[in-house]
Amino acid sequence: MLSYLSPLPTLPDYTGFHKVGSTEYEIPLASLGLQPLPEDLTLSTVKFRLFYPTTAQPSSRYGVPWLQEPQTEYLDGYLRLARAKPWLRNIIQSIPYYLRSTRIPAYENAPPSSSDAPLPVVIFSHGIIGNMNTHSAILGELASYGVFCAAVEHRDGSGALSIVRNGDDAKKAPAPTEITSIGFRQVSLKIKPGVYEQRDEQLQIRLFELMATFRALEMLNAGLSVRNLASSTENECAIPKGALNLNPSAVTWAGHSFGGTTLIQFMKSIYYEDQREEDNYSLLLQSAPPSLKAQITPTSPLILLDPWYLPLKSTQTRWLYEKPLPCHHSDGEASNDGSARTVIVSCEEFAHHWPECHSHIPAIIAQDPTSVEVQTDEEYHKEFAMYKSPRDYVNKSRKRKAQAALDAAQKDPSVLGTSEKEVDENAKPISMFALHDTTHITHSDFGVMFSWFVWWFTGQKAPELAVQNTARCILEAAGLPAADDAARVMGSRGQAQLERLL
């Protein structure tokens, strides 16, 4: 109750049976043994935050600062993206402890728990304005259930700010300059000339950073010494040799919004690399090593949280768009326990309120993406005008579209390009869930930290419950057990917040 009355943003405690540890890593790319990058790219390090189960000692420091150092610059970056006026930014930055006191409820640099069985691994890609800390609620929740999570910080200009260490002063982040800081890159969210090319450039960086993060985890898991520029001691939070399950197909790949786009392109780029024709544009800055290729299979767990559609339609990567997700090649055997390994979790606003969202998810999950007609902005606005309000649209449009699709299938099954029986067969590799009374940022820490503000503008309810439900979906996709507490899937007034759509 006190957390709701506090004027300072806070994050909820995790519900699992493990304590959670967290450590920041920033590793020079030169130490990872990867191929040289093109000369026009200035990437020098890869940065990520780990969340993991821990047996923290009493001496371990509890509470990881959510706002990175230098905090004033990071706070100003967020306020600029929120389009706050200079006078308002000055007022907010003058409030003592505002966001600066917000702590991730984890033990900083505590040692990972030792276990007879290797820990399952999740590698996470954030969306626009995100960074390695902005999805700590979901990833910390997973860690409390025994999952080892690595949250990548992308240096493609999609975040509010990212500071690059140069190795001269370990642990402390340098002052932001044109060399050490990567600020937000203003790229239109609409289809305009040059947008596809700019998003492709960002995706190239993002895919490489996922590759570098996986390589770093491999080296750490093998017991190799890797210099961490974010640590003042070489063995801080040393990962025990063989502590991670990096067997083929074992790693779970997850992403939110633009991060979902990133994972779709990452999976397809690697899975179909051997089928790429010479004139097909590649998003991979270098070939994936064999161990990474072995990870990307039809049964690799893939979690898409509100995946963003626009970058997938780039004219340069049309060949990827036309390819189905790898899960469709699983021959009807999605996993040993029969559960789908590719899972989509959509917040209600995203599922029913954004342009194209009614039709882009089917295009992403289809066996033949080219057969799915995507709703245009003009069609969306024409449809939206039929309803009294945004909330009326949210409540009624999904039912109307579902009924229209059913009517079309009954009149002429060829309209959908397949029979109802075939639809059921094709849906097996994929599960899809909707979170009611939620908005697009509910998947991030912002929905929890600013719950009253988000509720006022969007009607979001029970964001902590949404975090727990999303974690449950990820655990299910990875074939991991979760606490089967029915109360967690119930929203206000006994309504089910988590609805299985597929």
CATH fold title: Rossmann fold
Considering DSSP H and I runs of 4 or more, what fraction of the residues is helical? 25-40%
Beta-strand content bin: 5-15%
Strand order, largest beta sheet: 3-4-1-2-6-5-9-10-11-12-13
Largest sheet: 11 strands, mixed
Beta strands, count: 13
The CATH superfamily title: Alpha/Beta hydrolase fold, catalytic domain
Q: Unreliable runs, pLDDT <50, ≥5 residues? A: 1-5, 408-427
Encode the helix/strand succession as letters. Answer: HEEEHHEEHEEEHEHHEHEHHHHHEHHHE
Which of globular, elongated, flat, extended, rod-shaped describes the shape?
Answer: globular
By CATH reckoning, the class would read Alpha Beta
Q: With helices defined by DSSP (H or I, 4 residues minimum), what is the helix count?
A: 16
Query: What structural category characterises the helix and strand content?
Result: alpha/beta
Mean pLDDT: 82
Please identify, by name, the CATH architecture.
3-Layer(aba) Sandwich
Question: Any idea how many domains?
Answer: 1
Between the first and last Cα atoms, what is the distance in angstroms?
A: 36 Å
Q: What is Rg?
A: 22 Å
